[in-house]
Amino acid sequence: MTKSHSGFIGVALATALAMPFALMPSNAFAAPGRTPQVTTETVNADGIAGITDAAYDGLFSGGDAERGVAALIAAGAVKVNDLPVPTVTRNGGYSADQLDINGGSGLWENADGTWSYNVQVLLQGSNESYASAVVDFVNAVTLMRGISYRLTLADGVVTAINATVKDVAFANSVSVGRKFTKFTILGQGDGSTDKPNPTAICFPNVNVEGRPKSQNMVLYWKDAEGWHLERAVGRKVALEVNLESSGNWTELVDGASFTDSRLTLQYSEPWNRPTQPFRAMYWMGENDVHAIQWFAIPGVTIGFSRGAAAKPTLAAAVEKARSVLDAVAVSSAGDGSDVTGGEMWVTQAYHEIFARAVVDAQAELARIHATNDDYEGAIYRLAQAYGGQTGDRFSWLENTYFGSGDDYGFGTPFDTGYNGTGFWTFAQGHLGTGSSN
Q1: Model confidence, pTM
Q2: Distance in angstroms (rounded) separating the CA atoms of residues 145 and 410
Q3: Which of 13, 15, 194, 202 lies in disulfide reach of 180, CB 3.0 to 4.6 Å?
Q4: Mean per-residue pLDDT over the chain, rounded
């Protein structure tokens, strides 16, 4: 935090109790009997400036956004998904010891009296004082690029903050019943929060928006009305990986950069997220991939999917993998001394493991009831095995062929010992030293 607000909430609360209109702007009382002009403003969180940023100072009484937010919390005027942020009570306790977001821990009091929060994997705080934690929590919520939050203002001064946090998943299948809608996902989530698997949630049809269908990206959340489900907005695009002379690469959508969200993607698989699909393209040597780009709010990307292009893409990837499997020499000696000088080689173990990856991808391709998202998962796993980069987190994470993991805590821990180095990556870095005779 850039400003210190420790202890301020207690003062603000006492003031609010003594003067019910303490949070109203001073100019509201310039003329006796005049009713303040009340307006609402919607702010699209940009992931750069949260509500306590100095850029918002002018919207708060006293010209200090951080202190203004603290005062609003003390008055019970800040809500997240319809739940008021816990306040200090008259006896010095708290109105609540936690605030859950979409069925998982958002803000909570620890056993030692400190407070922690987990808004998103990049927006967390631990063991803070109550006064610091609640303000930092609200600021973190308003940094969740991909949501909009509402400010209520009286004569231009903020008197209430209301935010709705939505989570993201890719719906592998959607079923609509007489009263409820349900959807399924691939996998079991990445364990980044303690939120429930959405497959187990029944969404009242009255709370379903946009007519979600199978193979759609969806947004879902829980508020005072219960669980809500919404189809994300999508558009057809072309994805590119722009390789630079430095060896770095950039991600392009229709030839331009894009903005990804800071929403929780716990139950969205890597191949449907905003950045990992580009890694798979890079690993597999793909470019100009046709896909659907999905949005939370205009201009903020929550993920991609290949749609009907997934199956033919997987078929092409399998053929490419087979060709390099046949073309790369196997060094029985294990050091390239028995392979012609300058010729790429792999160990027998590498060859066998990659052969298994190709067989697995082929099996998914042949599976009768596989969905487009199943094919995308197979593309991602084969791409890891093909071109994963040594030591790169995304190359080794949950890479059962040449990486390590434990299915995000749901399976048995494993470590192949290859640190994410794909078959083709290994072969390119190992040239034979033997004689051509």
Answers
A1: 0.89
A2: 29
A3: 202
A4: 91
